[in-house]
Design a protein that fits this description.
Blueprint (H helix, E strand, L loop, with lengths): L3 H12 L6 E2 L20 E7 L4 H5 L2 H9 L1 E3 L2 E2 L2 E2 L1 H10 L9 E3 L14 E3 L4 H8 L3 E5 L17 E2 L2 E2 L9 H5 L7 E3 L11 E5 L11 H16 L2 H4 L2 E7 L6 H6 L9 E4 L7 E3 L3 E2 H12 L19
Parallel strand pairs: 2-12, 2-13, 3-15, 4-16, 8-11, 8-12
Antiparallel strand pairs: 1-5, 3-14, 6-7, 9-10, 13-14
Amino acid sequence: MPTRVSICLCACLILGLPACGQNTPLPKAGAVVAALQGNHHFDRVLIVILENEDAKTVTDVPYMDSLAKSGVYLASYYGVAHPSYPNYLALVAGETFINSAKAVKDPVAHEAREFGDAQLLIDAPSLASRFDKGGVTWNAFAEDYPIVDSIPSRCDFRRKSGLYARKHMPFLSFKEFHDNPALCAHIRNLKWFRPDSLAAYTMIVPNMVHDGHDAPLTTAVAWLRGFLKPVVTNAELMQKTLVVVTFDESATSGREKVFGAKRANLIYTALLGGMVKSATASNEPFTHFSLLRLVEENFGLSPSLAPAGMNAIDGVWK
């Protein structure tokens, strides 16, 4: 007898759904009133992305609860799609690219069986071009990324290698990285991460075990605790560094991934740093687009990649 997931995957083929990705409804939020003027709250931002878990499940873990309570917990923070891949794209480009004319199957990494996570080649701008134009330093570190040079001169566009999966390194989906190999210097193996030499923007992508994708949440929490310790215990560093711990999406069944989730895509997101109102929570609705917008506003990047009228994360600053 076929499983529920296999029935859903067959439906992708029968219905002709090329990606089987689903945008999720966004919460209503106020529009940004101010123009991009560099509303500067922090000198550096460090974003760590974990995988596929409901907010309530995460906050029930003592370490994650204590982490949230030591900074600001965003109690109404939502993913913007199912499955994982479109959420990563949203974080760096302001779109999910589900059924988008800007995206085609990536000739190097596309695997049709990875419904919704099948890799795309996207002809659209990402934060990389905004950083370059704005003179903002940045790095994106992936654990077990197959190129181990300290400053890579090329990108690895393959779908996966060992415990590393390209779908969790969103920058590599953009045509600009194929056209401009100099950008590949910013996509680095996690072995080169140093808390004492952070760029203005840093994205951290654990491998498929340490992010909780292929292992229990407890495994991801143990990894996160070890990774964050030298960062959050450095008082001087944390004064002007915003640490963001978030998840890509909430937990979903195979059916939900194909036909759309009926429940809210609510995920755990905590903000840490000397600039936030510690030991507080915000119930203002935010999404991955809000985090992108925050990065843009903080560093004065324009034009905005975020959807029109999307608000940045606010109301959490000292």
